[in-house]
Amino acid sequence: MVHDETKEKPVLYKEYENGKIGCLTLHRPENLNAVNEDLLDALHQTLGKVASNEKLSILILHSTLEKAFCAGGDVKEIQTKSNEEAARFFEKLATVLDTITKLPQLTIAAINGIAFGAGADLAIACDYRIGNSKTKIKFPGPQFGVILGTHRLVNEIGPSKARHLVLTNQLMDTEQSLHHGLLHEISEEDDSFNTAVTRAQAMLHMTDYTRRELVKICSYEEEVHAGDPIALAKESVLQGNFQERFSQYVETVKKKK
């Protein structure tokens, strides 16, 4: 297989403040950063390096697009997969989400525009979330039978609000997202990334130990009795005919446009 050196990387990574702040950029602009196999592999590789970087204190996850943080899973690619291949894909995605939640660094999601499905789960996996006036969030996965990131959602916003969002697939605008706890703040300058950098720079004044322990203390520690989230993501796809469910969902979305 010939490697295409001209192909743009789906994930970019840079460090600032003498290597104390890292910026991980989702970079599939032509697809609104939809998650495919290449992006997942790049995330897995980059996050592995981040996890082992003892000098790094804070990681910002963002997109350079004004209208999209991440549009969700790559529909065209997912539709080419067998049920078993789709199960492995969502298992891999769940593993990436789990990696983000367990990073030793503080994580900040800068969410300009839409964060749907896998994009919403990537955002919720982060410790602190900043939106702008165009931020919209929803969790459509359960509509086609996928349980992904729900454990973290419950821990972040509570069981009642989480139950409402995953059962109704309701689209949450900026103010609703803030009210539900999906966002911690809205950028006053309407640029979530700039605000995230400002917040990160201020948070560097804390010691790594203090910042890390505060995140732990402010985490909801009660066990969610629903099994391992990675295994659950895979098993939910394998129930019945996933591709049939997914295609029906895609057609429903198309009719609403």
Automatic annotation (TrEMBL):
Under CDD domains, the record lists:
crotonase-like
Recorded hits in Pfam families, A to Z, give: ECH_1 (PF00378)
Question: Which PROSITE patterns does this UniProt record tie to the protein?
Answer: ENOYL_COA_HYDRATASE
Q: Name one GO biological process term.
A: fatty acid beta-oxidation
| GO molecular function annotation | catalytic activity
Q: Which domain of life is it from?
A: Bacteria
SUPFAM superfamilies referenced in this protein's UniProt entry, alphabetically:
ClpP/crotonase (SSF52096)
Which family does the record claim for this protein? Answer: Belongs to the enoyl-CoA hydratase/isomerase family.
Q: Which PANTHER family match?
A: ENOYL-COA HYDRATASE, MITOCHONDRIAL (PTHR11941:SF54), ENOYL-COA HYDRATASE-RELATED (PTHR11941)
Q: Can you say what this protein is called?
A: Enoyl-CoA hydratase
Q: Which organism is it from?
A: Alteribacillus iranensis
